[in-house]
Amino acid sequence: MNRSLKEYLLITLKGMGMGAADVVPGVSGGTIAFITGIYQELIDSIKSVNLHSLKLFFTGKFKEFWIEINGNFLLAVVFGIGISVLSLAKGLKYLLENHPILIWSFFFGLIIASAIYVGKDIKQWKIGTIVSMIAGAVIAYFITIVTPAEAHSSYAFVFLSGSIAICAMILPGISGSFILVLLGMYKFILGAVSSFNLPVIAVFLVGAALGIILFSNLLSWLLKRYYDLTIALLVGFMIGSLNKVWPWKETVETFIDRHGEVKPLIEENILPTSYETISGIQPQLAGAIGLATLGFALIFIIEGISKKLSK
What we know:
two-stranded antiparallel sheet; mainly alpha
């Protein structure tokens, strides 16, 4: 597909939006790709990295390989994602450690809006579609109450984390960062990115590359044959995941990590007034509501801007 430089710059901006979403355990990069209109092309381009295209590469037909995989498009998207991840990782790590209620409130609003937006794309609401959405919500809820594992710093686990998380990152509705939270690897990977730990980053990316190539074929097949059911399932995942990002929590069980630091192991959701009683500090309710509203509005603002830029 022939595109102008302006069009590729726009794709890079969309990739930056995906990267920003993928960094936070609240909304997926796939949701942003869905909103900005590049989702189907992204899945098809990733899927084209197969035995046929790899044969072109290894036989020296680099130009044909590049055209086969829609290389210019993928490069623009990946470049945008990289800019966001590298620039936001350190700041987000600071916010999560120092202002957890405010940042989780923002994520909460993002997820609600994402569920509404993605749900609008379902063409027909039938019994099967509703059941699929409920099933997604139940599955996601039970995943959120699973006790997160402690981070494993072995390269094998880093590779596995990358291959699993990337599958979620391209789904509209499931955050790859959220999967990393469940695996106990979120802060570890975020720290590796913010400190430019190249060996860890490289192993994670190799795992991600393998995972996304394999998973894109399955996702493409599901979307082509069971579109409404698949989208409804993803909407359910978003609804069920709200349990995990509820801003006010009480730690009921802790553990000591390998650095000797006390970390929360099991947390329960509580009301803001209860949090104030337990912590002895103000729950920042007004700011939390404001940021949740901003997060909710942001999805529809992005949609509006994307429509204007695409004209």
